[in-house]
Specification:
By secondary structure, the chain is mainly alpha-helical. It is built from 13 helices and 4 strands. The chain folds into 3 domains: 2-72, no CATH class; 86-219, Helix Hairpins (Orthogonal Bundle); 224-269, no CATH class. The strands form 2 sheets. Strands 1-2 form a two-stranded parallel ribbon.
Length: 283
């Protein structure tokens, strides 16, 4: 406002180069006060900063001038700030992706652990189901099964939450595999501590992802787009949630080509280096 008064201007546009999440607070603040904010592509700033002085130097004053000139020339994008359900879907979908990545990392750590201390474990179990997690919780090492019968182990595994009927055949196969295990037998005290921590975190992530899924499904079902997308064969709730979290409401788009471009599927012509009269079309 002081700058507008000093230069006799009646309108103002704030231009920024987006850096991570730091611009969002300013964007929402300016929106509340009716001041437009635009974003310039960081790659454009990097490429055009040498046009004036032919130097690759970078500092705040120079960057601000380059951003202002790009905005003056109309080389900017207008960000669409998310509100209400759209904002919740985006935040929830992003969180779910982070939790799934962490779950995959924990699962890989469990696989590395079993490869070291109980490599025969995966000859009996194909995945980390309830029985497999119960085995790792109560008898993680082959030595823990020595001298114990199937019935004894079944009673132990039933202590795990949600596991009522462990598979007897798998437990017998695991006992047989443990007899001739080639797993490491040193450092077992801390090995037990490590696998216990991994199993607890894996179960916690499972519960958090399930709870988040339920919240997201209840939220997305309140949107108009959900009712239409649900009629498309092959589209489940998870896909619809991710789709609407990414693009928002269809009301924001005037033409299907906007969604095609957003997906990065716009066709472009590349005729450089081609013989005269020939064109090469690529994605």
């Amino acid at each position: 406002q002081e700058a507008m008064q000093a230069f006799g201007k009646s309108e103002v546009i704030v231009a920024v180069e987006p850096t991570g999440h730091y611009w969002l607070n300013l964007a929402y603040f300016l929106e509340e006060h009716g001041i437009p904010l635009v974003m310039v592509n960081p790659a454009h700033v990097c490429r055009s900063k040498e046009l004036d002085d032919n130097l690759p130097t970078k500092h705040d004053a120079k960057d601000a001038l380059v951003i202002a000139r790009l905005a003056k020339d109309g080389r900017f994008l207008v960000p669409r700030l998310l509100h209400e359900i759209e904002a919740d879907l985006r935040v929830g979908s992003t969180l779910k992706e982070k939790l799934r990545k962490e779950q995959t990392a924990v699962k890989n750590a469990i696989v590395r652990w079993t490869d070291r201390y109980f490599p025969e474990f995966w000859t009996v179990f194909r995945d980390l189901g309830k029985t497999a997690l119960s085995v790792l919780e109560w008898t993680p090492l082959p030595a823990d099964m020595a001298g114990r019968t199937v019935e004894e182990l079944l009673e132990v595994y039933r202590q795990s939450e949600g596991l009522k009927c462990p598979q007897k055949a798998k437990i017998q196969a695991l006992i047989n595999a443990a007899k001739d295990s080639i797993g490491v037998t040193e450092g077992t005290a801390m090995a037990r501590f490590e696998i216990a921590a991994l199993v607890r975190r894996y179960r916690q992530l499972e519960a958090e992802i399930a709870a988040l899924d339920a919240e997201l499904k209840a939220l997305v079902q309140t949107t108009m787009e959900y009712q239409w997308l649900k009629t498309v064969d092959g589209l489940g709730d998870a896909t619809i949630i991710d789709l609407l979290a990414e693009i928002g409401s269809f009301a924001h788009y005037r033409d299907p080509r906007q969604l095609v471009k957003l997906a990065g599927l716009t066709l472009k012509e590349n005729s450089s280096g081609q013989r005269k009269g020939q064109k090469h079309i690529s994605k």
